[in-house]
Amino acid sequence: MLDRMTEAIEFQGKALALRARRQEVLSSNIANADTPGFKARDFDFAAALRQATATTATASRALPATTSSAALPAGAAWRTAGGGQVVSTLAPGVQHTVQLARSKPGHIGTGGLGGNAVEYGTRLQYATPKQASLDGNSVDLDRERASFADNSLRYEATLRFINGRVRTMVTAIRGE
Fold first, then answer.
1. With contact defined as beta carbons under 8 Å apart, do 114 and 80 qualify?
2. Structure confidence by residue, pLDDT tens digits, 77-134
3. Helices (H), strands (E): how many in the chain?
4. How many percent of the chain have pLDDT more than 90?
5. Are 20 and 55 within 8 A, CB to CB?
6. pLDDT for the residue 117
7. What span, in angstroms and rounded, lies between the C-alpha atoms of 160 and 21?
8. Cα 121 versus chain centre, distance
9. Which of 18, 116, 4 is nearest to 60 (CA)?
10. For 173, what's the count of Cα atoms within 13 Å in the CB-facing half-sphere?
11. CA–CA distance from 165 to each of 2, 8, 9, 152, 157 (Å)?
12. CA separation for the pair 68, 97 (Å, rounded)
């Protein structure tokens, strides 16, 4: 019975978590609009939501971040392994693990926004700029601000929907 009641909210909860993550990514892009060489990143929200609704509760954790770079040899990639480790694959089947050192306990590790994974296995992708920048920065500030505002509005709508559903359930339970 409880599963049936929470089932309706579960979808919206996953959407809310993805909207929050997208807000972090977009705000990072906006904050780095003047950083030379910064590449704007984003993810396909619809694909991430499809992936989220297809996963089970036990498999809903983020996957390790993996990305490929044109500067590396063909087939080469790197990913964060957690615990301050970076694993690089320079050739198929050959991996090198490097432990990143922190000179102070307050330094940021390899997890968080620095990773390439979004919840439910979706990957961050680099945005293609409409116009090339001389300093190599690919942030289109107008596009990022518009995406940020749109995502904020949709986040708020999702939150209001969840609050309304919870309020309706509480009213039904109380018999009012």
1. yes
2. 445 554 455 554 444 445 545 555 667 776 665 444 445 666 566 788 888 888 878 9
3. 3, 6
4. 38
5. no
6. 60
7. 18
8. 9
9. 18
10. 9
11. 14, 8, 7, 20, 12
12. 16
**Residues in CB range of 159: below 8 A, 6 or more apart:** 16
Q: How far apart are CA 157 and CA 163, in angstroms?
A: 10
Specify the DSSP class assigned to residue 126: E
Residue 176 to residue 162: CA distance in whole angstroms = 20
Q: In one letter, which amino acid is 79? A: R
> Are the C-beta atoms of 37 and 137 separated by less than 8 Å?
yes
Contacts of 66 (CB under 8 A, 6+ apart): 77, 78, 79, 116, 117, 123
pTM, 2 dp: 0.63
φ/ψ (deg, to 5) at 107: -70, 150
Angle subtended by helix axes 45-54 and 2-31, to nearest 10: 150
Residues in CB range of 173: below 8 A, 6 or more apart:
none
How far, in Å, CA of 140 to CA of 132, rounded?
10
Q: Residue 98: CB partners within 8 Å, gap ≥ 6?
A: 85, 86, 87, 88
Which amino acid, residue 70? A
Rounded Cα–Cα distance for residues 174 and 176 (Å): 6
